[in-house]
Design goal:
Blueprint: H1 30-42, H2 70-77, E1 80-83, H3 90-99, E2 103-109, E3 127-136, E4 141-146, E5 149-154, H4 156-161, E6 177-181, H5 189-205, H6 212-228, H7 233-260, H8 266-292, H9 303-317
Antiparallel strand pairs: 1-6, 2-3, 2-6, 3-4, 4-5
Length: 320
C-alpha cells in the first residue's frame, strides 16, 4: 500500500507542539490544523506560515475561518496546491495521486470519522477536511491527517465515508478536493524564515482597517440573546465560529511572532496571547449567559481583547 509519508503510523504518531494539550486552543480549525501536521511530517516549520493570522476580520455573523493562503504555501515551501477534478470514484483519484507522491485534501463527513468521537462521530453530519496518506480499498481502510493528529478508519466507517452504500440510481456526492504537489527537496530553513518575515509585512498591510474585535463586541450581547433562544447545541456552533476562531487565530499569531523573533516582536506576541486568553475566558461567560439568560456582563467582556488588538497592531506598525 503506497503512501506519501511512508514513515508515519497512527499508533506511534506524535502531534506537533502547536497541538499540545497544554495550549489554550489545542485545536484551531480543520484546515489549519491539517497543514500544521502535514508540514511537520514534511520536516519544515509550520510556524512560518502563520503570518496570515493578522488578516482575520469580523464578518458580521462570524470571524474569518482562517486558512493559510495557497500562494503562501508555494512561496514558503514550494508546495503547490490546486483543485483536483473529481469525475470518477473519489477513491480511484486518491489512489492515483498517492501513487504519484501527492496528498489529497478532501472534504469529508465527520459522522464516519472515529477521531471525532464525542462531537460528531455517529451523531452529527458535518463537513471537515482531511488529507489521506494511505488508502487500502480492498481492505476498506485509510490513514489520514485530521485536526491535530493522524488517524485510521476502516470497515463500515470506510463505506460511509466513500458512500459505498449509495446505489447507481442515486450517484454519490462528489466532494471538493485539493491536491498538494511537494518539492523534491524541502526548502532551506533559513530561506523559509527569511520569506516568512517578508510575508509578515505583506499580511500586516492586509490587516482589517478597523478593529474586528471591537466590531464584534458591539453586536455580541444581542447575538447571544438570540443564541439563547435556540437549542443548546447551537451554542457550540456559535462559539466555534466566533470566540474560538479569533482566540485560536491569535494564539497562533503569537507563536508566529515569537518564532520569527522573540525579542523584536515580544510586545506584539504578548498582546496576541492576551487576545487569545480573553476569548477563552469569555467562552465560559458565554455558556453561563446562555444558561442563565443574563447578558449584561457581556457588554464589556471583550474590551480587554479589543484593546490588546489595538496595542498589537501599534507595536507591529513600529517594527514593520
Amino acid at each position: 500500500m503506497s503512501s506519501v509519508f511512508p514513515g508515519i503510523r497512527p499508533e506511534a504518531y506524535a502531534p506537533h507542539a502547536l497541538h499540545s494539550s497544554e495550549r489554550m486552543w489545542p485545536e484551531t480549525n480543520c484546515y489549519v490544523d491539517l497543514w500544521i501536521e502535514v508540514l511537520s511530517a514534511l520536516g519544515v516549520a509550520p510556524e512560518a506560515m502563520l503570518g496570515f493570522t493578522l488578516t482575520q476580520d469580523f464578518e458580521g455573523d462570524q470571524f474569518t475561518f482562517f486558512k493559510v493562503p495557497l500562494e503562501d504555501l508555494e512561496t514558503l515551501y514550494d508546495i503547490r496546491v490546486t483543485e483536483l477534478a473529481i469525475f470518477d470514484r473519489v477513491e480511484r483519484h486518491i489512489e492515483t495521486q498517492i501513487g504519484r507522491g501527492r496528498l489529497c485534501l478532501i472534504e469529508m463527513d465527520s459522522f464516519y470519522m472515529p477521531d471525532t468521537q464525542g462531537t460528531a462521530y455517529r451523531t452529527e453530519h458535518g463537513k471537515t477536511t482531511v488529507a489521506i496518506n494511505r488508502l487500502d480499498f480492498a481492505g476498506r481502510r485509510i490513514e489520514y491527517f485530521h485536526n491535530g493528529g493522524y488517524f485510521e478508519l476502516q470497515g463500515e466507517d470506510f463505506d460511509g465515508l466513500f458512500q459505498l452504500h449509495v446505489t447507481e440510481e442515486l450517484p454519490p456526492f462528489l466532494p471538493y478536493t485539493e491536491f498538494a504537489k511537494f518539492p523534491a527537496t524541502p526548502r532551506d530553513a533559513g530561506q523559509v524564515r527569511e520569506t516568512s518575515r517578508r510575508l509578515l509585512d505583506v499580511h500586516f498591510r492586509r490587516r482589517p482597517a478597523a478593529n474586528p474585535i471591537r466590531a464584534f463586541a458591539n453586536v455580541f450581547p444581542l447575538q447571544v440573546e438570540a443564541v439563547a433562544e435556540r437549542p443548546f447545541g447551537f451554542f457550540h456552533k456559535y462559539a466555534f465560529n466566533t470566540l474560538r476562531q479569533f482566540g485560536a487565530n491569535f494564539e497562533l499569531a503569537a507563536d508566529h511572532l515569537r518564532w520569527l523573533s522573540e525579542g523584536e516582536f515580544s510586545s506584539a506576541a504578548e498582546q496576541a496571547g492576551r487576545i487569545s486568553e480573553v476569548a477563552k475566558s469569555v467562552q465560559f461567560q458565554l455558556a453561563r449567559a446562555v444558561t442563565r439568560k443574563k447578558f449584561d456582563p457581556l457588554q464589556t467582556a471583550l474590551d480587554p481583547a479589543a484593546d490588546a488588538w489595538d496595542s498589537m497592531m501599534a507595536s507591529l506598525a513600529g517594527r514593520l
